[in-house]
TrEMBL record:
Organism: Sulfurimonas crateris
Name of the protein: FAD-dependent oxidoreductase
Annotated Gene3D superfamilies: 3.90.660.50, FAD/NAD(P)-binding domain
InterPro entries attached to this UniProt entry: CrtISO-like, FAD/NAD-bd_sf
Single GO biological process annotation from the record: carotenoid metabolic process
Length: 473
């Protein structure tokens, strides 16, 4: 019998499996697909490789959570520092988001001049710097006593950032600037949407500030594609089962049975890296199903439409671009597309002289449920995004070797997840209403981007560290 069974090999699942293994526990990790990483993995098609979804890697620097966890599991990733972290193209304006404040600010202020710009961005920078000095706070959700005690650990943080936590980001920004033109506001909102996964009106300014400041932290390109990260993270996990779908879990008094197609495994404790609003489907136990059912309302149906391309070009490209247009893309909920390129100098992920491109735009999974219009809508959006990317980045049509799209239905088919991007830290989904890493069910836990603390590498890793504390590991 295993000490821990981890179901799902996304950022949270792979990391907690590795961390517990490093602590001496007997751990087994299950992944439905042949690739580890879930929506942050890599895959191959037509002889070319692509990163599946999220392609930014941040938090790997001194004093930050990703580096802390990686050091605990003795893993050093193969990275290339990317600076600027992102190149933002909006109309005729190009803003390079350098890590150095003054270098970035000079470009920003030239493109979007405003008398209060420096005061605003210095405030954003300071909030980001001060946030990472806080420690000791944690979140528990097993019962009202443990939750209340854990919330008290946030008192110093709440006291420090209270005025930013209580104000919605849209109103705060409008009040701060007084008058801000539509284009500049669209720039800010598109930057926040990349990280926070929600519009400004739905989040507090503290969340918005951390989102705007992520490029002031160190960002990296992952050599060999994101799958190499997960292979490295899990290399010391006792058992890793790929192409192994857990179909149901049965709770007993002192252990759980995990049922696969042809095998049954036993574990004292189970950690789920599935979405909190879909985890109940794995159980027939009414108490467990009722617990997860109350979180089904958190499914905001937000997802991503992906366009994958391979191009042959000798030109130099940055690792990440964001292209913002005036109007919302059809069949989406966004005016911006995020475009990531492989590194020109590495040949493990794309052949020399070629680039692997992953482009994403926010959508609603319900837009893709109608079978009759599905193919036409998919083709329409593929063509629009492809044409825009080629035009804005100066790529010729005959340089495109391969291109294809993926919708929320595609992700649901391969990773059993139509909602992507995690649960945004909105006013409706904030402490103490946020799902926790622990549950009222003995020895059943959660990790990932739909529970504490947030989405993205730093957010999910904070949840991994939080779960480690709750487990006493």
């Amino acid at each position: 019998m295993k000490d821990f069974a981890v179901v799902g090999s996304g950022i949270g699942g792979s990391s907690i499996a590795a961390l517990l293994s490093a602590k001496g526990y007997d751990v087994i990790l299950f992944e439905k697909e042949p690739y580890l990483g879930g929506c942050s993995s890599s895959f191959s098609r037509g002889g070319y490789s692509y990163n599946t979804g999220a392609t930014t890697f941040a938090g790997y620097e001194e004093g930050h959570i990703v580096k802390e966890i990686f050091e605990l599991i003795d893993f050093k990733p193969d990275l290339i520092r990317t600076d600027p972290s992102i190149v933002v193209i909006q109309n005729e304006k190009t803003t390079l988001r350098y890590r150095d404040f003054d270098q970035f600010f000079e470009i920003l202020h030239s493109n979007y001049p405003h008398a209060k710009n420096r005061a605003f961005w210095e405030m954003v920078y300071k909030i980001n710097q001060e946030f990472y000095t806080f420690s000791g706070h944690y979140y528990a959700n097993a019962n009202i006593f443990s939750k209340t005690r854990s919330l008290l650990s946030f008192v110093p943080l709440f006291s420090k950032f209270k005025k930013y936590l209580l104000a919605d980001a849209k109103s705060f920004i409008e009040d701060f600037f007084g008058i801000i033109d539509k284009e500049y506001f669209g720039f800010l909102e598109s930057q926040v949407l990349i990280v926070a996964q929600a519009p400004l009106r739905e989040i507090n300014f503290f969340t918005a500030a951390l989102s705007l400041a992520y490029t002031f932290n160190e960002n990296y390109y992952v050599k060999g594609g994101f799958s190499t990260l997960f292979d490295g993270i899990t290399k010391r996990v006792g058992e890793v089962h790929r192409k192994s779908e857990v179909r149901s879990i049965v709770r007993h008094s002192e252990y759980f049975e995990l049922h696969l197609k042809d095998e049954v495994f036993k574990a004292k404790k189970v950690i789920l890296n599935s979405t909190v609003y879909e985890s109940g489907k794995l159980f027939s136990d009414s108490k467990i199903k009722d617990y997860y059912k109350k979180y089904e309302k958190l499914d905001n149906h937000q997802s991503s439409f992906m366009l994958y391309m391979t191009i042959k070009s000798e030109r130099d490209f940055h690792h990440h671009y964001q292209i913002i247009q005036e109007n919302q893309f059809p069949h989406t909920i966004s005016k911006a597309v995020f475009v990531s390129f492989s590194d020109k100098e590495e040949s493990r992920f794309a052949p020399k002289g070629y680039y692997s491109i992953t482009a994403s735009v926010h959508t609603d999974s319900r837009y893709w449920e109608d079978k009759e219009s599905y193919k036409a809508k998919k083709r329409e959006l593929e063509d629009i995004l492809k044409a825009l990317i080629l035009e804005k980045l100066g790529i010729e049509k005959d340089e495109v070797v391969q291109s294809f799209g993926a919708t929320s239905k595609t992700f649901d088919r391969y990773i059993k997840r139509a909602q992507l991007g995690g649960n945004a830290m909105t006013f409706k989904n904030f402490l103490p209403f946020l799902p926790g890493n622990d549950t009222p069910i003995k020895n059943l836990y959660n990790v990932g981007d739909t529970v504490f603390a947030a989405q993205g590498w730093p957010g999910v890793m904070l949840g991994v560290k939080n779960l480690q504390r709750l487990l006493g590991a």
